Amino acid sequence: MPKISAATVAEHRARQREALIEAAVDILVTEGAAAVTPAAVGARAGLARSSVYQYFDSVAVLLATIVEEAFPRANKALEEAMEDARTPLERIDSYLTTTLRLAAEGAHRPAAALMAADLHPSCRERLMELHREQIAPFRAAVRDAGVPDPGLTADLLGGLLQGAMAAVERGTPVDAVLERTLTLAHRCLAPGDGA
Question: What global pTM score does this model have?
Answer without folding.
Answer: 0.79
